[in-house]
Design brief:
The complex is a heterodimer of chains A (about 120) and B (about 230).
Chain A lengths: L2 H21 L6 H15 L4 H13 L6 H5 L5 H6 L1 H37 L1
Helix pairs in contact in A: 1-2, 1-3
Chain B lengths: L1 H5 L2 H22 L6 H15 L4 H12 L2 H6 L1 H7 L1 H6 L1 H25 L4 H7 L6 H11 L3 H25 L5 H23 L1 H21 L4
Classes of the chains: A mainly alpha (about 120), B mainly alpha (about 230).
Amino acid sequence: MNIMAELAIIFGICLVSEGISALLPIALPASVISMLVLLALLLAGIVKPRHIDRVCRFLVANMAFFFVAPCAGIIEHVESLLACLLPFLCAAILTTPLVYAATAWSIQLMLRARRRKESHHA
Amino acid sequence: MLEAMLSSPFFGLGLTCAAWCVGVFLEKKTGFLLCNPMLIATIVVVAVLAVFQIPYADYLQGSSMLTLMLSPVTAVLALNVYNQRRLLGEYFLPVIVGCLVGTLTSVGSVLLLCKVMSVDSAMTSALLPKSVTTAIAIAISENLGGIPGVTAAAVVIAGVVGAIFAPAFAKLFHVTDPVAEGVAIGACSHALGTAKALEIGTLQGAMSSVSLCICGILTSILVVFF
């Protein structure tokens, strides 16, 4: 598909999502809504993967590039960051293994229960 | 003349692209995980602005165009989920419950930490979405009145910690199931972790990319209630 047509689909979805975000009573980010809208369109078969393939591949492969600009915004907030450096580092580093363990254990428990049930039936 | 050049959007666009290339070059050259292109590029941009005392507003002229692309970048993650729909169907309930538990743990532990250390609300809002992928985290942080730069920094740190220590975490917490391992990596360290999960195994990588999408959605819904 024409690359401009692919872009038009993606930008169109983002535009509609901005509208939906403004209508929603909760503050769900428009970017998350655009992901859900695209997923719904894909599942419904209205948008096929080949319609957006090239743009998707480019954006996913270069995803981190688009984060540099917002990251650089930290220069405006160095003081407030330094003021609470300790809680910042604790939140960013210490909670990571905690999230890992909680997620992995809950899934392992459920999968084990399911397998036990299946072997019971068999 | 210099003033006209600096206030042109091409300054911000050019600087960001050049800084990115420096990051990619260093990553290729060293192969060191901390030489993450995003981290290096951010440091280069900040250094250039600080050393030459260029106002952030000048940089913003061009960089705001790139920030605009965060929405399309997030949208295309849907294709990841779509491509894994069969696998997701098979493990639907455990994956959703796992992501919910992970999201609750992440948001809850940050809230508790900020309360104990009496951190102000702008900083707390900036830290709340630290476990989800940058595009979603920044949108959540902005919505809550947090500082996007701080959010982005916290997200990168969480991602790098997860990406480096994911194999160690699996041993430490006795995680043997590949589905559990993949979802857990995606839940705690989003896209950076997913890159590592793909190295560990295809199933882990797939589950991690699904989990980073679901956790992003769950976090953005969950923080509304805080």
